[in-house]
Structures are given as C-alpha cells and as structure tokens.
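hey m, so remember when u said the tokens were messed up on ur end? i reran from scratch. heres the input so u can diff it against urs
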Amino acid sequence: NKDLFIECSSDESNKKTILSDIDDVILCTGFQPKFPFLDTSTLATLHYDPSDSWLPLILYRDILHPSEPGLYFVGMYRGPYFSVMELQAKMVAGLI
C-alpha cells in the first residue's frame, strides 16, 4: 500500500490531497477500435486496420470517406479531444 499525492489547480482553487492506503492506480489510456456494425466491404473501403489503434480508418479530416456518403465518424481523433470533436460534430451537422 502506498500514498497517492493529487494536486488540482485552477483559477478558482489550488487543492492538494494525499490519499492513503492505495493498492492500485488504473490508467485507461488506450483502446482498440472495433466496428462490428460495419460490413467487410465498408471496412475494406475505409482501409480498416484493427492493429492500428492510432489511425484504424483512412478518413478525410478523421470524419468521412468520399466513397461512403452518409457515414460519418466523430471522435476518431487522437489528441485533445473535446474541441476537435465539437468541430467535427459541427462539420457533420453541416453535411447532413
């Protein structure tokens, strides 16, 4: 068992906490993208590579493929998510 030091800072507060008697810390930092809802021909068109967790699909702006009209992805982007996902969602809304 170990102690875990947590520091949270923002404009409003500067909080420091020590959590005691910690057995494990689990960081969920990765995922394996799977698309069981897409047929094999669509996956082939999108150049799906299940072994590539960074870029499993070849998409324009990480959103769409020109050969699959009406099929859009939001959030298939690796990086600071929320602002990019918002822009992707706005682009998709403009296309629908």
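this time it looks ok to me. The beta strands are 2-9, 14-22. if urs says something different then somethings off w ur setup not the seq
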